[in-house]
Amino acid sequence: MFNAAVLGASGYAGGEMVRILDRHPGIAVSHLGAHSRAGETLSAVQPHLTDGGRTLGDNDPDHIPDDVDVAFLALPHGSSTETGIALRDRGITVVDLGSDFRLDSNERYRQAYGSDHPRPDHLPEWRYGLPELFDVTESRQVAAPGCYPTAVLLAIAPLAAAGLVDPSAIVADCLSGVSGAGRALREDLAYGAVDEGVRAYAVTTHRHRPEIEMALEAYGIDHPRVVFTPHLVPMLRGELATVTAPTETDVSTARDALEEVYSDKVFVSVIDGPPQTRWVVGSNRTLIAVWVDEWTGRLIVQSAIDNLVKGAAGQAVQCANLMLGLDETAGLSLDGWMP
Amino acid sequence: MFNAAVLGASGYAGGEMVRILDRHPGIAVSHLGAHSRAGETLSAVQPHLTDGGRTLGDNDPDHIPDDVDVAFLALPHGSSTETGIALRDRGITVVDLGSDFRLDSNERYRQAYGSDHPRPDHLPEWRYGLPELFDVTESRQVAAPGCYPTAVLLAIAPLAAAGLVDPSAIVADCLSGVSGAGRALREDLAYGAVDEGVRAYAVTTHRHRPEIEMALEAYGIDHPRVVFTPHLVPMLRGELATVTAPTETDVSTARDALEEVYSDKVFVSVIDGPPQTRWVVGSNRTLIAVWVDEWTGRLIVQSAIDNLVKGAAGQAVQCANLMLGLDETAGLSLDGWMP
Amino acid sequence: MFNAAVLGASGYAGGEMVRILDRHPGIAVSHLGAHSRAGETLSAVQPHLTDGGRTLGDNDPDHIPDDVDVAFLALPHGSSTETGIALRDRGITVVDLGSDFRLDSNERYRQAYGSDHPRPDHLPEWRYGLPELFDVTESRQVAAPGCYPTAVLLAIAPLAAAGLVDPSAIVADCLSGVSGAGRALREDLAYGAVDEGVRAYAVTTHRHRPEIEMALEAYGIDHPRVVFTPHLVPMLRGELATVTAPTETDVSTARDALEEVYSDKVFVSVIDGPPQTRWVVGSNRTLIAVWVDEWTGRLIVQSAIDNLVKGAAGQAVQCANLMLGLDETAGLSLDGWMP
Amino acid sequence: MFNAAVLGASGYAGGEMVRILDRHPGIAVSHLGAHSRAGETLSAVQPHLTDGGRTLGDNDPDHIPDDVDVAFLALPHGSSTETGIALRDRGITVVDLGSDFRLDSNERYRQAYGSDHPRPDHLPEWRYGLPELFDVTESRQVAAPGCYPTAVLLAIAPLAAAGLVDPSAIVADCLSGVSGAGRALREDLAYGAVDEGVRAYAVTTHRHRPEIEMALEAYGIDHPRVVFTPHLVPMLRGELATVTAPTETDVSTARDALEEVYSDKVFVSVIDGPPQTRWVVGSNRTLIAVWVDEWTGRLIVQSAIDNLVKGAAGQAVQCANLMLGLDETAGLSLDGWMP
Question: CB–CB of C300 and B227 under 8 A?
Fold first, then answer.
């Protein structure tokens, strides 16, 4: 049995981390950290979780007990850098759910965030935690991608790597449930501001675009260019990516290319019709479907995930399982919840 | 390992039965039955469930394999009678999630449904499957109550049994998510007919009122009278009962009476503030809170459950666990899903 | 043409005030006030409204132009007192949508709010703005009730006044859409905290209970006692009151008593089945239905309104129409929006 | 005052037609038609509308009274053809909200619907009712486009006509509220099948693609090719189009091209940030925003409408206003409803 720390346990992704780990056969939660809610009980902060009297500690890496083998960091952007490095220095396996270590160079970080990375020398040591596309088995420190890159990359990377689409003209329109925006108090996330409406945000400027292009390059694709437009949809969970690119192939070749990569991947299923996000809520699965539109010479590929599971906590556990030598699926559900 | 059959596996409660049983350590699904969707794969009918190639058979009790130890019937009203009796005749443990065997006499059945029960002589053999209030351990045939009686009874029965409220003047206003109405195609359950609105239905005439009063009597309460008004709320899951009755007690006495019954019941928690249905979605838990309003001399007690878990499939599994000698919590989650 | 000022124009009720007044044939908006958003354009704050270049001023009553005939105050609790008195001193007709002047005495105010009213001597001068029950024609200063008292009083007052129910044992369970809680930034009103769940709040302690009882007394009912439990429902607009009380009458007598009061009231309709909030969204109508449950000797009466229209801005305009000698329905819609 | 007939008054678009016309200063409803619900009162079928005792007649054009000047057809696909021709033969001005007369040739009709048009010789006589792009003033028979073509064309047509984008590589991802699918009883439109999820449908095969391309050609654009992917979003109303195309222009040139077409169009506003569908619910407005992504050489343009107003009934009234010589905005609201 491995012992885990979850920092940022008061947020949505942190709560999902605890929910998953509490039924994990090989990992037990031994430390919970939070920032402003440190000192409260878990059930005060996450009333859907049963606590057995557990209290949230703080997020200070020095307060993590020595018996911790693996740490999951579900912290706001910028807060993982020093914590992640400190935990690595103590020999703890780390999965960062945040964005601090996802980009592989200071140049890319600057492109995405407009400022220098505070510890750029550390960036190369972190693996990009999308296990269906990048092997993390040998690593002890992983930066797990969020919901948008996960959904887009799983959909288009195998097709682009097989040379079936023009990677310089990818259009990715993504639809996300509200939990993807986190639990911080924001006027634009009030019920009265979200219900019964849809909207895009960060058009042309979202920081996940450079990350997606970086990962495509790392997967062997030259000069990818992605138009990435995220949209907020009035639902709690779920992420649907609709990715379009010029193609000269046919649909069965495209589907074969997906199957070649995913046929032995338990968490990805290539299906026939449009995937629905409802089918994967609560599950670590990704559902993918592909079409070729001969009239326009365009390939359309869609992927559906649960943004808090495969797009956050589930993927983090999947990475930890692989790094710790556990079964990849340990603690993770293939089944979703419906209705 | 016990083998289970689930009849009516294509509905919402049936799907939840399979989801729960598929992660049950002591019960394995060996037969799935459906009516109009017999012959289809499970994943065609319940796309959130992974199937391993399972195909739905029909609901005919004669087609249930001999290795089945326990059958869960999630069938439309009236369809369980002959099936339940036939399965009992074969010695199979039966949990009926429907209403065919919930009432204990033909008189009551007529009061609720306006017609005679087709096999009234069988009614006394069935136990009412609300294990926190009625022992089902020795039984092999249980009629599990639905979400409304479960929520109302768990809230008010201990208080009425302790003589703390006037049982002849109980008012129960209940709010249910849409999945409680089942998966049948109905105009009044279209998205365009449900979203962004609330409404009551079956005011003064709902068939669950006689059932609630029967169970209160069976729990030792004389002459209960319940005004029961169910409301439909635009959400998928969840059931909140707000129950009011005249009282002369104080809140701490009331709370003590609840704790006395529930302190050793793992699935019921008495909490301080208003329970939210969101906190128990996906969980088999019931959250209860009680207030006494001195100004009006009224006690208010609320309970929140997931109508498909504690109000249907979870409670059915809880009953089966008890009848089969398994741990009461086997396969059942205390944690919910949020957000 | 009368000129109007709307203070608090940046909130939900204030926005609805402007939307209604902008199509009112007899009242024109000549001043818009806001607090933190003063200086912004109307369309920046209320993007669904077209502005013609209008800018929000502040809420200071001294900044209201001299040509203003009527002022609508949609301000936070406590903010209307001095403003309302100052505007009255200038001879301006005032409709307060807030709670500062709803209670008729300092004693009642203390019962509801736990502190003394700052200007109790002014309380008797304000009329309670529920025109179907209380004549406001001769007044120039009205405190319009909010959604809960409006819905509950319209449902039960005529029945209690006719002696058809026991007014000392009224149970009112109310369901409100989220806009009823206003536009202020609150953690418990985030989309992630509201969607897919229901909950009660302020059980036994809501400040509207004393207000409801005061209005019942003012309507001629002795010693009313109301158990009032408000619930938050995941929808933007709508308010449903389910009111239960002991009765010895029959349903046709009860219905007659409602019709006697409402047959000549254009904004109230007594209907046969359960009213749905969806049917009155955007409308100033109230739908009422009544049942008598002989088994329990209880009358159940329901009313449905749009909390922002009949429960706020629409009722305010209705009061202003009556005070200004305009047609009661001027600017108000009977039709709702659906779906 | 012109007299109007509304056929298909029992559907969502038909109900919205009646709601708008009932407050139209120049058009009065004198006949309501329905199919299966003929004989019922309007309020039985559309409970949000007040009826004054109006009863639904049938949809037979011969039953339309002689005093009718203008007919609005909100009928299922294929049902308008003979009715529209018969009404034109009687000299009645016709606005068809359906798809029977939208395409301008049998060839195109076959491409979209896979069969011959039953009366192809009539197709050229109908004007395409998108008044911001096509003049309908001189016509007496208009086929008004639905929500998808309206949103996509208003967004991209001016930009393509100005030569600012490559029209052969347009990608249009569209998000629609559920009312866009109509009121027919369908399993995939049940609340339990829609809430809390998103999905695409008719990927590569939607019949609106040929219509969009036809209209682009009619607007002077050579060889347009559009990848069109519609998505269903859990909300009642609203339509958001996200349209991407290769460009070599900059954003201010693009915005100028939009303003040049729309600066004198009262129902279209070019705005700065992403348009939200919530801002136009209940309004006949279209909100448009444009971006140029230099990194990918792509232009992104978004438009937001209310699918039942600008995407159906409102646009139909706008067309009728223009054909009848009324003010273009008569009876139509610029303001929306929020929250």
Answer: yes
D26 token code pair: 């120049």
- Against chain B, the chains showing at least 3 CB pairs within 8 Å are A, C, D
DSSP β-bridge partners for residue D57? D33
The pLDDT tens digits for B54-108 are 999 999 999 999 999 999 999 999 999 999 999 999 999 999 999 999 999 999 9
Per the CB < 8 Å rule, is A192 touching C234? no
A and B: number of Cβ contacts within 8 A: 66
Is residue D53 pLDDT above 90, yes or no? Answer: no
The CATH homologous superfamily for domain B147-308 is Dihydrodipicolinate Reductase; domain 2 (3.30.360.10)
pLDDT of residue C128: 98
CB of A187 within 8 Å of a chain D CB? The answer is no
Contact assessment for residue B225 and residue B137, using Cβ atoms and an 8 Å cutoff: no
Chain C residues 25-64 with a CB less than 8 Å from chain D:
46-50
Candidate from B229, B233, B291 with C-beta closest to C233: B233
Distance from CA of A134 to the nearest CA of C (A): 32
Query: Does residue C208 surpass a pLDDT of 90?
Result: yes
**Domain D2-144+310-323, classified CATH 3.40.50.720, yes or no:** yes
Mean pLDDT of A38-56: 92
Q: Is it the case that residue C53 has pLDDT exceeding 90?
A: no
Quick check: C243 and C156 in contact, CB under 8 A?
yes
Residue C52 has pLDDT above 90, yes or no: no
Please report, for residues B53, B149, B261, D243, D268, the alpha-carbon distance to residue D131 in angstroms, rounded to integers and kept in the order given.
54, 57, 70, 21, 11
A126 DSSP β-pair partners: none
Q: Per-residue pLDDT averaged across C144-157, rounded?
A: 98
Q: Do D227 and A302 touch (CB under 8 A)?
A: no
- Chain mean pLDDT for chain B: 97
Confidence of residue A21 (pLDDT cuts 50, 70, 90): very high
CA distance A59 to B10: 46
pLDDT of residue D297 exceeding 90: yes
DSSP secondary structure, B78-110, as one string: TSSHHHHHHHHHTT-EEEE-SSTTSSSSHHHHH
pLDDT in tens, A247-296: 999 999 999 999 999 999 999 999 999 999 999 999 999 999 999 999 99
Task: Report the distance separating Cα D208 and Cα D216, nearest Å.
Answer: 12
| D147 labelled catalytic | yes
* CA–CA distance, C152 with C168 (Å, rounded to integer): 15
A330/A311 Cα distance (integer angstroms): 17
Query: pLDDT value at position B109?
Result: 95
- CB of A193 within 8 Å of a chain C CB? The answer is yes
CA pair distance B205, B208, nearest whole angstrom: 9
Q: How confident is the model at residue C51 (pLDDT cuts 50, 70, 90)?
A: confident
C119 contacts C290 by C-beta, under 8 angstroms: no
Nearest Cα residue in chain B from A47? B279
Among chain A residues, the shortest Cα distance to C184 is held by A187
Instruction: Give domain limits for chain B.
Output: 2-144+310-323, 147-308
Active site residues of A: 147
Alpha carbons C270 and A199: distance in angstroms, whole number: 40
Q: What is the dihedral of CA C11, C14, C18, C19, to 10 degrees?
A: 70
Residue C246 scores a pLDDT above 90: yes
8 Å CB contact of B48 and A283: yes
Determine the residue of chain C that is closest to D18 in CA distance.
Answer: C335
Q: Name the residue of chain C whose CA is nearest to B202's CA.
A: C274
What does the pLDDT read at residue D51? 78
